[in-house]
Amino acid sequence: MNLSTQQALQHCTVCPRNCGADRISGKVGFCGAGTLPKVALVSAHQWEEPPISGTRGSGTVFFSHCNLRCVFCQNHDISQENFGAEISIERLTEIFLEQQSRGLHNINLVSASHFIPQIAEALENAKAQGLSIPVVYNSNGYESLDGLRMLDGLVDVYLPDFKYWDDTLAVQYSKVPHYAETAAAAILEMRRQTKADIFDENGIMEKGLILRHLVLPGHYKDSFRVLDWIRENLGKDAYVSLLNQYTPMYHATEFRNLSRRLTTFEYDKVTEYFLEIGLTNGFVQKRSAATSEYTPLFDLSGVKSAATFQIRKEN
Ligand code: SF4
Predict the structure, then answer these.
(1) 168, 184, 285: which is closest to 226 by C-alpha?
(2) How far apart are CA 130 and CA 125, in angstroms?
(3) What are phi and psi of 225, to 5 degrees?
(4) Known binder of ligand: residue 73?
(5) Among its keywords, does the record have Iron (predicted)?
(6) pLDDT in tens, 205-230
């Protein structure tokens, strides 16, 4: 672990929670993450947006822990119950290079904000060793500007959520204060870093920004406000993925609105509003996406090196 990674973790303000925890000394903050990166699954993901998954799949690396507490989290096994294995920064570097050698379109860092310093170090090492495919940063939107600046020049494509406009919903459903203003500032920083949206000849995004918004049952008018912000601040050509996949999972059934799936009426209202305010680049999902079948099975595949498995077998 290099000096700048250690320094960032000694008084952790890597994400907007600003806990100040000394993770190097074994203390943990809100996210519960330690010093080493913790990973639950390394896979080839086929179900991201077409410019991300393409035909060969996206090289996802799913990180454990999270700085939000979404009551409907479909990945709660790893985000809230923290399943995963701690690995060294050297192993994370190897994983990035292995994903490239599998012929996948990109490296896709899923929920990584609490491991930004370690990831930045691993990306620098991997790039020095030949990593050349785009790096996608797949985020819940709750990012600090200091954290994002550590990724400047290392990440090619940002894929942030913009989950809520109304902070009451953000606090109630994700236990996060000031979500909208924090996500808005983070997204503008992501736009500053990536500048323009660039695709290769096969339509795979090489550089740019795609915003994701999960439409929640009972709250489609909150989606309107999120789209208004996008239109006003990123322009009509911003790429927006409107997710229809909401499924009541985890603690969602404790909340009246979240206990059911989204209706076609609600989703159509949001897609119609998207067009009405002049946005032009949207991705939509079929209703059949609203099933837990699309939740990955977190089984540590690809996390440990072949050598480690060999040692385990011999034991
Ligand atoms: S990354 Fe974790 S420890 Fe650091 S500020 Fe965020 S929640 Fe706190």
Answers:
(1) 184
(2) 9
(3) -65, -35
(4) yes
(5) yes
(6) 999 999 999 999 999 999 999 999 99
Using CB distances shorter than 6 Å, the residues near ligand 1 are 12-15, 17-19, 21, 29-31, 33, 67, 114
Q: Which residue, judged by its Cα, is nearest atom 2 of ligand 1?
A: 31
Q: Which atom of ligand 1 is nearest to the CA of 67?
A: 7
Q: Where do the domains of the chain lie, and which CATH numbers do they carry?
A: 35-309 (3.20.20.70)
3-state per-residue secondary structure call for 218-263: CCHHHHHHHHHHHHHHHCCCCEEEEECCCCCCCCHHHCCHHHCCCC
Cβ distance 67 to 113 under 8 Å? Answer: yes
| Helix (H/G/I), strand (E/B), else coil: 70 | coil
Helix axes 179-194, 167-174, angle to 10 degrees: 100
Residue type, 250: Y
Taking the C-alpha atoms of residue 234 and residue 238, their distance in angstroms, rounded to an integer, is 6
Q: Which residue is it, tokens 């119609």?
A: 272
- Name the residue at shortest CA distance from atom 1 of ligand 1: 114
What is the DSSP code string of 22-51? -GGGT---TT---SS-EEEEEEEE--S-HH
